[in-house]
Amino acid sequence: MSAKPSPADPEPPAVALPAPVADVEVTRWRGGRREALVDRVAEETPVAVQVNGEPHAVMLMSPCDLEDFALGFAFTEGLIERPQDLLLVETRALDDGIELDLCLPLRAPRRADAPVRSLPGRAGCGICGKAMIEDALRVPPPVPQGATIGRAAIARAAQALNARQPLNRETGGVHAAAWVGLDGAIIAVREDIGRHNALDKLIGARLRGHFPPGFVLLTCRASYEVVMKAAVAGIGLLAAFSAPTARAVRLAEHCQVTLAAFVRGADLVLYAHPSTLVDDIA
Predict the structure, then answer these.
(1) Domain encompassing residue 105
(2) What is the pLDDT of residues 183-202, one digit of tens each?
(3) Of 97, 113, 136, which residue is a domain's last?
(4) Nearest 10 degrees: CA dihedral of 126, 132, 133, 137?
Protein backbone atom coordinates (compact mmCIF):
# COMPACT_ATOMS: atom_id res chain seq x y z
CA MET A 1 0.00 0.00 0.00
CA SER A 2 1.51 3.24 -1.04
CA ALA A 3 1.89 6.01 1.50
CA LYS A 4 -0.18 9.12 1.10
CA PRO A 5 1.81 12.05 -0.22
CA SER A 6 2.58 14.51 2.54
CA PRO A 7 0.99 17.91 2.05
CA ALA A 8 3.30 20.57 0.80
CA ASP A 9 4.73 22.81 3.47
CA PRO A 10 2.86 26.10 3.44
CA GLU A 11 4.87 29.08 2.28
CA PRO A 12 5.73 31.50 5.06
CA PRO A 13 3.68 34.68 5.00
CA ALA A 14 5.27 37.56 3.15
CA VAL A 15 6.93 40.19 5.31
CA ALA A 16 5.55 43.66 4.67
CA LEU A 17 7.87 46.57 4.01
CA PRO A 18 8.20 48.79 7.08
CA ALA A 19 6.51 52.17 7.14
CA PRO A 20 8.82 55.23 7.18
CA VAL A 21 7.18 56.51 10.39
CA ALA A 22 6.49 54.67 13.66
CA ASP A 23 4.31 55.48 16.68
CA VAL A 24 6.21 55.59 19.98
CA GLU A 25 4.79 56.08 23.48
CA VAL A 26 6.55 58.97 25.19
CA THR A 27 6.37 61.07 28.31
CA ARG A 28 6.45 64.81 27.81
CA TRP A 29 7.12 67.55 30.31
CA ARG A 30 5.93 70.99 29.20
CA GLY A 31 5.26 74.03 31.32
CA GLY A 32 5.84 71.99 34.46
CA ARG A 33 3.20 69.41 33.51
CA ARG A 34 3.79 65.76 32.67
CA GLU A 35 1.69 63.86 30.14
CA ALA A 36 1.79 60.53 28.32
CA LEU A 37 1.22 60.63 24.59
CA VAL A 38 2.13 58.97 21.28
CA ASP A 39 4.82 60.59 19.14
CA ARG A 40 5.55 60.03 15.45
CA VAL A 41 9.18 59.01 14.94
CA ALA A 42 11.17 58.51 11.73
CA GLU A 43 11.99 54.86 11.07
CA GLU A 44 15.62 53.84 10.53
CA THR A 45 15.80 50.68 8.44
CA PRO A 46 18.84 48.65 7.35
CA VAL A 47 18.75 48.28 3.57
CA ALA A 48 21.14 45.65 2.22
CA VAL A 49 22.16 46.52 -1.34
CA GLN A 50 23.20 43.56 -3.49
CA VAL A 51 24.58 43.71 -7.03
CA ASN A 52 23.68 40.65 -9.10
CA GLY A 53 23.16 38.73 -5.88
CA GLU A 54 26.49 39.74 -4.32
CA PRO A 55 26.56 41.88 -1.14
CA HIS A 56 27.65 45.47 -1.78
CA ALA A 57 26.61 47.77 1.07
CA VAL A 58 24.19 48.15 3.95
CA MET A 59 22.61 51.58 4.34
CA LEU A 60 20.52 52.80 7.27
CA MET A 61 17.76 54.82 5.68
CA SER A 62 14.08 55.70 5.44
CA PRO A 63 12.23 52.78 3.79
CA CYS A 64 10.52 54.74 1.01
CA ASP A 65 11.24 55.64 -2.63
CA LEU A 66 13.53 52.62 -2.78
CA GLU A 67 13.58 52.29 -6.58
CA ASP A 68 14.63 55.93 -6.90
CA PHE A 69 17.35 55.26 -4.32
CA ALA A 70 18.54 52.14 -6.16
CA LEU A 71 18.93 54.02 -9.45
CA GLY A 72 20.54 57.10 -7.92
CA PHE A 73 22.87 55.06 -5.72
CA ALA A 74 23.97 52.84 -8.61
CA PHE A 75 24.69 55.92 -10.73
CA THR A 76 26.51 58.05 -8.15
CA GLU A 77 28.48 55.04 -6.90
CA GLY A 78 29.75 54.38 -10.43
CA LEU A 79 28.05 51.00 -10.79
CA ILE A 80 26.27 52.12 -13.97
CA GLU A 81 26.91 54.77 -16.60
CA ARG A 82 23.35 55.06 -17.93
CA PRO A 83 19.95 54.59 -16.27
CA GLN A 84 19.11 51.74 -18.65
CA ASP A 85 22.08 49.76 -17.29
CA LEU A 86 20.00 49.05 -14.19
CA LEU A 87 17.94 46.21 -15.60
CA LEU A 88 15.89 45.28 -12.55
CA VAL A 89 15.50 46.10 -8.87
CA GLU A 90 14.11 43.37 -6.65
CA THR A 91 12.90 44.48 -3.23
CA ARG A 92 12.50 41.94 -0.44
CA ALA A 93 11.29 42.69 3.07
CA LEU A 94 13.22 40.85 5.78
CA ASP A 95 12.36 40.41 9.45
CA ASP A 96 14.51 43.41 10.40
CA GLY A 97 15.32 45.22 7.21
CA ILE A 98 15.08 45.28 3.44
CA GLU A 99 17.11 43.68 0.69
CA LEU A 100 17.58 45.50 -2.62
CA ASP A 101 19.01 43.35 -5.40
CA LEU A 102 20.28 45.40 -8.32
CA CYS A 103 20.48 43.47 -11.57
CA LEU A 104 23.19 44.85 -13.87
CA PRO A 105 24.43 43.53 -17.22
CA LEU A 106 27.22 41.05 -16.58
CA ARG A 107 29.13 42.49 -19.49
CA ALA A 108 28.99 46.04 -18.14
CA PRO A 109 32.47 47.08 -16.98
CA ARG A 110 32.83 48.68 -13.59
CA ARG A 111 33.56 52.38 -13.92
CA ALA A 112 37.15 53.27 -13.13
CA ASP A 113 36.08 55.74 -10.45
CA ALA A 114 33.66 53.30 -8.79
CA PRO A 115 34.47 52.84 -5.09
CA VAL A 116 34.40 49.54 -3.26
CA ARG A 117 32.20 49.25 -0.18
CA SER A 118 32.72 46.45 2.28
CA LEU A 119 31.10 47.70 5.50
CA PRO A 120 27.74 49.16 6.47
CA GLY A 121 27.03 52.73 5.47
CA ARG A 122 25.41 54.62 8.32
CA ALA A 123 22.61 57.15 7.98
CA GLY A 124 24.75 60.18 8.73
CA CYS A 125 27.80 59.40 6.62
CA GLY A 126 27.69 58.21 3.05
CA ILE A 127 31.40 57.36 2.84
CA CYS A 128 31.40 55.03 5.86
CA GLY A 129 32.34 51.55 4.75
CA LYS A 130 34.55 52.47 1.79
CA ALA A 131 37.42 50.01 1.62
CA MET A 132 40.09 52.71 1.23
CA ILE A 133 40.36 56.44 1.75
CA GLU A 134 41.17 56.87 -1.95
CA ASP A 135 37.85 55.25 -2.83
CA ALA A 136 35.96 57.57 -0.51
CA LEU A 137 37.53 60.78 -1.77
CA ARG A 138 36.64 60.57 -5.43
CA VAL A 139 37.04 63.67 -7.59
CA PRO A 140 34.57 63.76 -10.51
CA PRO A 141 35.37 65.79 -13.65
CA PRO A 142 34.18 69.41 -13.85
CA VAL A 143 30.47 69.95 -14.49
CA PRO A 144 29.76 71.68 -17.83
CA GLN A 145 28.54 75.24 -17.49
CA GLY A 146 24.74 75.37 -17.54
CA ALA A 147 22.09 78.06 -17.30
CA THR A 148 22.49 80.84 -14.76
CA ILE A 149 20.20 80.73 -11.73
CA GLY A 150 18.73 83.76 -9.96
CA ARG A 151 18.85 84.31 -6.23
CA ALA A 152 15.10 84.85 -6.36
CA ALA A 153 14.60 81.23 -7.48
CA ILE A 154 16.49 79.93 -4.45
CA ALA A 155 14.47 82.20 -2.16
CA ARG A 156 11.17 81.02 -3.64
CA ALA A 157 12.07 77.35 -3.28
CA ALA A 158 13.41 77.78 0.26
CA GLN A 159 10.12 79.36 1.33
CA ALA A 160 8.03 76.58 -0.25
CA LEU A 161 10.08 73.53 0.71
CA ASN A 162 8.69 72.94 4.21
CA ALA A 163 5.22 72.33 2.80
CA ARG A 164 6.66 69.60 0.56
CA GLN A 165 8.19 67.53 3.40
CA PRO A 166 5.44 65.29 4.82
CA LEU A 167 7.80 62.94 6.69
CA ASN A 168 9.62 65.79 8.36
CA ARG A 169 6.35 67.48 9.36
CA GLU A 170 5.35 64.26 11.12
CA THR A 171 8.68 63.50 12.77
CA GLY A 172 11.05 66.48 12.60
CA GLY A 173 13.84 63.99 11.94
CA VAL A 174 14.50 63.64 8.20
CA HIS A 175 16.38 65.54 5.51
CA ALA A 176 15.00 66.61 2.15
CA ALA A 177 16.56 67.03 -1.27
CA ALA A 178 14.53 69.03 -3.80
CA TRP A 179 14.90 69.53 -7.54
CA VAL A 180 14.04 73.13 -8.33
CA GLY A 181 13.35 74.64 -11.74
CA LEU A 182 15.03 77.81 -12.95
CA ASP A 183 11.96 79.81 -11.90
CA GLY A 184 12.15 78.51 -8.31
CA ALA A 185 9.26 76.03 -8.63
CA ILE A 186 9.88 72.77 -6.76
CA ILE A 187 9.66 69.87 -9.22
CA ALA A 188 10.29 66.93 -6.88
CA VAL A 189 11.28 66.23 -3.26
CA ARG A 190 12.75 63.11 -1.69
CA GLU A 191 13.15 62.62 2.07
CA ASP A 192 15.40 60.37 4.15
CA ILE A 193 17.09 60.22 7.54
CA GLY A 194 20.41 60.32 5.63
CA ARG A 195 21.13 63.43 3.58
CA HIS A 196 23.12 61.46 0.98
CA ASN A 197 20.29 58.92 0.71
CA ALA A 198 17.80 61.73 0.09
CA LEU A 199 20.04 63.07 -2.67
CA ASP A 200 20.48 59.61 -4.23
CA LYS A 201 16.69 59.24 -4.26
CA LEU A 202 16.30 62.62 -5.95
CA ILE A 203 19.00 61.84 -8.51
CA GLY A 204 17.28 58.52 -9.25
CA ALA A 205 13.95 60.29 -9.73
CA ARG A 206 15.63 62.83 -12.02
CA LEU A 207 17.25 60.09 -14.12
CA ARG A 208 13.87 58.44 -14.44
CA GLY A 209 11.71 61.52 -14.90
CA HIS A 210 13.13 64.03 -17.44
CA PHE A 211 13.22 67.00 -15.07
CA PRO A 212 13.64 70.51 -16.53
CA PRO A 213 16.91 72.43 -16.02
CA GLY A 214 17.43 73.57 -12.45
CA PHE A 215 19.33 72.96 -9.23
CA VAL A 216 19.27 71.05 -5.94
CA LEU A 217 18.15 72.49 -2.60
CA LEU A 218 19.08 70.54 0.55
CA THR A 219 17.77 70.96 4.09
CA CYS A 220 21.06 69.71 5.54
CA ARG A 221 24.72 70.65 5.58
CA ALA A 222 26.74 70.48 2.38
CA SER A 223 29.19 67.64 2.98
CA TYR A 224 31.84 66.25 0.63
CA GLU A 225 29.62 63.30 -0.18
CA VAL A 226 26.65 65.34 -1.39
CA VAL A 227 28.85 67.64 -3.49
CA MET A 228 30.52 64.59 -5.03
CA LYS A 229 27.16 63.01 -5.88
CA ALA A 230 25.89 66.28 -7.34
CA ALA A 231 29.00 66.58 -9.54
CA VAL A 232 28.70 62.97 -10.74
CA ALA A 233 25.09 63.70 -11.72
CA GLY A 234 26.11 66.87 -13.60
CA ILE A 235 24.31 69.23 -11.20
CA GLY A 236 25.78 72.71 -11.48
CA LEU A 237 24.31 74.39 -8.39
CA LEU A 238 23.82 73.02 -4.90
CA ALA A 239 22.13 75.16 -2.23
CA ALA A 240 21.97 74.02 1.39
CA PHE A 241 20.20 75.28 4.48
CA SER A 242 23.18 74.48 6.71
CA ALA A 243 26.96 74.83 6.59
CA PRO A 244 29.44 73.31 4.15
CA THR A 245 32.61 71.49 5.07
CA ALA A 246 36.01 72.72 3.91
CA ARG A 247 36.57 69.61 1.81
CA ALA A 248 33.16 70.08 0.18
CA VAL A 249 34.09 73.67 -0.74
CA ARG A 250 37.36 72.54 -2.32
CA LEU A 251 35.63 69.80 -4.29
CA ALA A 252 32.88 72.16 -5.47
CA GLU A 253 35.49 74.64 -6.70
CA HIS A 254 37.39 71.90 -8.54
CA CYS A 255 34.22 70.46 -10.12
CA GLN A 256 32.81 73.90 -10.99
CA VAL A 257 29.73 73.33 -8.84
CA THR A 258 28.25 76.53 -7.46
CA LEU A 259 27.90 75.93 -3.72
CA ALA A 260 25.58 78.10 -1.66
CA ALA A 261 24.96 77.49 2.04
CA PHE A 262 23.14 79.01 5.02
CA VAL A 263 20.14 79.62 2.77
CA ARG A 264 17.59 81.73 4.69
CA GLY A 265 15.00 82.94 2.23
CA ALA A 266 16.81 85.40 -0.03
CA ASP A 267 19.92 85.37 2.17
CA LEU A 268 22.75 82.93 1.48
CA VAL A 269 26.52 82.56 1.49
CA LEU A 270 28.37 81.60 -1.70
CA TYR A 271 31.36 79.34 -1.07
CA ALA A 272 32.45 78.11 -4.50
CA HIS A 273 32.18 78.88 -8.21
CA PRO A 274 29.82 81.88 -7.91
CA SER A 275 29.48 82.58 -11.65
CA THR A 276 26.32 80.46 -12.05
CA LEU A 277 24.31 82.58 -9.60
CA VAL A 278 22.96 85.98 -10.55
CA ASP A 279 21.49 88.56 -8.17
CA ASP A 280 18.01 89.35 -9.48
CA ILE A 281 16.60 90.71 -6.20
CA ALA A 282 16.55 94.48 -5.90
Answers:
(1) 45-136
(2) 999 999 999 999 999 999 99
(3) 136
(4) -60
Whether the predicted pLDDT of 115 surpasses 70: no
Q: Answer whether residue 134 shows pLDDT above 80.
A: no
Q: What is the CATH number of the domain that holds 255?
A: 3.40.140.10
Considering the candidates 64, 125, 128, 220, report the single residue annotated as catalytic: 125
Same-domain status, 106 and 170: no
Is the pLDDT at 1 greater than 50, yes or no?
Answer: no
Range 154-175 burial, b when 16+ CB lie within 10 A, else e: bbbbbebbeeebebbeebeebb
CATH code for position 65:
3.10.20.10
125 tagged catalytic: yes
* Distance of alpha carbon 67 from alpha carbon 226, whole angstroms: 19
Find the radius of gyration of the CA atoms of the chain. 21
pLDDT tens-digit series, residues 38-85: 999 999 999 999 999 999 999 999 999 999 999 999 999 999 999 999
At 8, which amino acid appears?
A: A
Helix (H/G/I), strand (E/B), else coil: 192: strand
Say if 118 falls within a structural domain. yes
